[in-house]
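## tool: complex_structure
## caller: assistant
## args:
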Amino acid sequence: MIVAGIESSCDETAVSFVKDGRNVLSSLVSSQISVHQPFGGVIPEIAAREHLKSVSYLWEQAMKQSGLCESDIDLIAVTRGPGLAGALLVGVSFARGLSISLDRPLIGVDHVHAHIHGALLGLPPDTDIAELFPAIALVVSGGHTNLYWMEDPVRFRLLASTLDDACGECLDKVARMMDLGYPGGPVIEKMAEKGQRGRVSVPTMLPGKEYMAFSYSGLKTHMARLWEKNQGFQGQDLNDLILAFQDEAFGQIRRKTDLALEQLQKEDKYPRSVLVAGGVAANQSFRNIMSGFGNGVRTWFPALNYCSDNAAMIAALGCYEYQELQRSGKSLPDDADWDIYPRYLYS
Ligand code: AMP
Ligand code: MG
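## result:
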């Protein structure tokens, strides 16, 4: 089954063609980072307008790259949410137009859930995906810090999410406050590499085992207070501070994943893998912290081009969800029921 994926939830327009949920035939991403950079963050209306400029061009280029013709496409998958409303509407309207003109079914998928499929793309072709499940899955991005229990590739049981800021958001906000650049994650990674441990300490967030949740606003405020009091942090001192900050930002995720493993064990549930996805999963220190769970549990990360937003992950999840709908005899939503959703559906 060949699935076309369309993504436009934030500041990347993306189109991809994926065969059988695994084999990426083409994946193109047009990033708007340089357009938003002068503002230090994403401006929603500008994002929507940029998607409108890029989406049909990307479609044509991805079509050429894949060597497919439009009649080869079996299904169109598009991000329905969460994301910026205006930005989502561009991708969804484009996808609906395609669905009508090509006479192919259209499935809307959740962007956060799709990130997990980023970790599954690029596995050796002979990997049987079913053997990776059940799994603990984490999406650590600019908008979300979600931890799931997954029995299979389409069922997501949310075990923990953030009470306030997302991990990537915290990295971005702290970098912005310190005038380090945007997006903050990659800059912080570079500075932390030069830092030395044990020279600065930052508080531990939600240390108690009773909290199956993440929190980043206290860490962000701690950094803001330190910065207000002592803007003299520079050179090695600044690198040491950034390393301590990054260690806590990521250490918290490891602690909560260990806690989730403990709690699942009480329910007699044993994951075979930990799947870690989202923009922050590009960070090598984070990858090190999130590896080594023992008991044969292996951690999988996306290839770097599938950490950040892309449409291959949208096509992949769309493929598995469509097959599941067919297996269970359910139908796709009626045309009139189509809508986008800006916020993650926590229910
Ligand atoms: P996403 O929301 O999935 O598009 O990812 C964007 C987020 O990932 C932003 O918060 C970035 O700061 C963060 N990010 C990107 N690259 C890295 C990196 N190398 N280390 C840490 N965070 C990163
Ligand atoms: Mg994303």
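## assistant note: The two ends are 31 Å apart (CA to CA). The pocket of magnesium ion (ligand 2) is lined by residues 111, 115, 141, 309 (CB under 6 Å). Handing back to user.
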